[in-house]
Design a protein that fits this description.
Blueprint lengths: L5 E4 L1 H16 L3 H21 L5 E2 L8 H14 L3 E8 L2 E8 L2 E9 L13
Parallel strand pairs: 1-5
Antiparallel strand pairs: 2-3, 3-4, 4-5
Helix pairs in contact: 1-2
Length: 124
Amino acid sequence: MARARSVFLTANFDRNLVGIREFLAEADAAGAFERLLHRLESAVIPQLQRFPEIGADFLSRAPLSAEGQALFEDVAKAVGRDAELRQWVDGDYVVLYLVKGGSIYLLSIKHQRQVSFDFAGHWP
């Protein structure tokens, strides 16, 4: 049986939750935020505690551009060899987390619709 780990929410994760709440309120979907909080508490965090490897290894997919590669190398160096940076897609949400020792650090969460491109900004 896998051992349970401690889970910590980072300040960035908290800011992301505020952003999601505002995003969903603007979309008249405020109830979805309450469901997200319930899902985090009742399913996501307990699953990560028991099975921290559930998410994909974020650093296993190196970018192809030179700029992306430079940023990727900085992130890999910051993570270090004794930790794993993982990404888990859970429903409409993408969670980025760090596994280090007996702890899990929730780094970021985004609603998939928050990740978009500014097409209007590309044309005059």
